[in-house]
Amino acid sequence: MVKKILTTNKGAPVANDQSSITTGKKSSYALLQDTYLVEKLAHFDRERIPERVVHAKGAGAHGYFEVTHDLSEYTRAKFLSEVGKKTDVFVRMSTVGGERGSADSVRDPRGFAVKFYTEEGNYDLVGNNTPIFFIRDAIKFPDFIHTQKRHPTSNLSDANMVWDFFSLTPESLHQLTFLFTDRGTPRDFRHMHGFSSHAYMWYNENEEYVWVKYHFLTKQGIKNFTDEDSVKMAGENPDYATEDLYNSIENGNYPEWNVFVQIMTNEEAKNYKFDPFDVTKVWYHSDYPLIPLGKLVLNKNPNNYFNEVEQSAFAPSNFVPGIGPSPDKLLQGRLFAYEDTQRWRLGANHHQIPINQTKNQVSTYQMDGPMNVNKGSHYPNYYPNSLEGPKPEACFKAPTIDVQAVIDRHTQQVEDVDFEQVGEFYRRVLNKEDKSHLISNILNSISGVNENIQYRQVALFYKADIEYGTRIANGLNLNINKVEKLASMTQEDRIKSTLS
Ligand code: HEM
């Protein structure tokens, strides 16, 4: 075996790594000329990068996506062009609200981010394990996240902040109902689904387009913790999901997801029974059945967690020809936020970090910046040029969208339709046991909250489904007549009646 010699980070051999250069054997002074000590401490001082502002705790793995069904009539994306085609992927799964060292099993949505290394560049699908979201306008996101993190004074999580915001944001009801079922505490990352949640555009070479939503259905089956077990696991093994994913892959037990899409034409979108780009709602499977597309397999653990998982950068703005955004107001904000945070978190050249690099050739006139490791000359570094520099290619043009617009900060009123899917979810999707877990999970969280907030929130549960609201009201010893009255009001009046 070749003998490995320890070196400095510039490659010079090191003679002694256990003793600093000092003036004596015992108590003594260290010397600045010990450049090896200085290098070692200075590098250590800089080992941490800022954690992600959300989704800070996560695990990742490599694998592949394989097309099993031909949907190439809808999209020109090359990686979807034929059955059997395989594309390398990197996937990161995460919790949302906690810090980098927080427990995996807590009640929270789980991130489900997939980077496809296609021959036309990287395509990122940055989804969650829930098909819906709490809000539908990006401008509310920072406030929403503040309520999920620590109180700025006590530095503790704070149920009053959480329920105050939810009760003032009724469009959150669908996602929060999902979150307080046992699906809000998935057992690990393998036994949960993944969803794009948003609709995206697929377009073909004729510039014909449709809207799609992606569903990654776990082949392992769904497994959740009860509230009690999730709390117990947070204490016993806060890294349970991370460990489970790592060990399964290490043992050759590769997790898989079957990938489906729902497809809606633009004509149908104009006439659907509700706004199909509203991310607080699902498209009914009876209207838009799941169409099989492919499978996702994770079969290789990262070699270096920091390099591959911590430095990975997923952004909903990373599209390839054939796929684009939809007029979903939440998605529109996300198209900005991810690359922006990554320019700060990892630097302007984060796309050059190996885990984020494309597998195809990058030809751009962008240059320099911190940590630039581009090899070769940048010349020519301007366009247009009379040299043989890279040129845009018009055939990659995305479809033209015709928009008739009134520009304003449009207030989106809460309507009865916003409560329909919540009621149906409670009545039709949840069985008796799911319902009783949902009620007790909500009661565990909301019982210590100020009474005015409880009334405002319980009126929303009641509005979605009378039994749902009544059970929570009873659990909190609230006056059901008052709840009923609040439920019949407009949101504006309800807020006025429950100010304190
Ligand atoms: C306007 C709404 C949203 C904003 C502004 C937002 C912003 C962010 C930011 C700044 C990050 C950190 C990224 C990084 O440091 O690399 C992040 C991570 C993430 N977000 Fe969002 N987010 C929003 C909504 C959503 C929604 C609706 C989903 C799912 C459908 C989602 C899924 C994720 C996931 C999975 C990650 C972690 C990606 C990774 O593993 O690195 N986010 N988000």
Key descriptive features of the protein:
500 residues; alpha+beta; Cytochrome C Oxidase, Chain J; 3 domains; binds protoporphyrin IX containing FE
Contiguous helical run count: 15
- Over all CA atoms, what is the radius of gyration? 26 Å
State the share of residues found in helices, binned by percent: 25-40%
CATH architecture of the largest domain: Beta Barrel
Helix-strand makeup class: alpha+beta
CATH superfamily of the largest domain, please? Answer: Catalase core domain
Write the topology of this structure.
Layout: H1 35-45, E1 58-67, E2 86-95, E3 110-118, E4 121-128, H2 141-148, H3 159-167, H4 173-179, E5 194-195, E6 200-203, E7 209-218, H5 227-236, H6 240-250, E8 256-265, H7 266-271, E9 291-300, H8 305-310, E10 323-324, H9 329-345, H10 417-429, H11 432-446, H12 451-464, H13 466-475, H14 480-488, H15 491-497
Antiparallel strand pairs: 1-2, 1-9, 2-3, 3-4, 5-7, 6-7, 6-10, 7-8, 8-9
Residues 52-55, 58, 92, 94, 111-113, 126-128, 133, 138, 141, 197, 312-314, 330, 333-334, 337-338, 341-342, 345 line the site of protoporphyrin IX containing FE (HEM).
Question: Please, could you describe this protein's structure?
Answer:
31% of the residues lie in helices and 15% in strands. With 500 residues, it is α+β, with helices and mostly antiparallel strands. Strands 1, 2, 3, 4, 5, 6, 7, 8, 9 and 10 form a ten-stranded antiparallel sheet that branches. Strand 6 and strand 7 form a beta hairpin. Helix 2 (141-148) runs antiparallel to helix 3 (159-167), helix 4 runs parallel beside helix 10 and helix 12 packs antiparallel against helix 13 (466-475). It is globular and about 80 Å long. The protein starts with 34 loop residues before the first helix and ends with a helix. Bound molecules: protoporphyrin IX containing FE. Protoporphyrin IX containing FE is lined by residues 52-55, 58, 92, 94, 111-113, 126-128, 133, 138, 141, 197, 312-314, 330, 333-334, 337-338, 341-342, 345. Protoporphyrin IX containing FE (HEM) is lined by residues 52-55, 58, 92, 94, 111-113, 126-128, 133, 138, 141, 197, 312-314, 330, 333-334, 337-338, 341-342, 345.
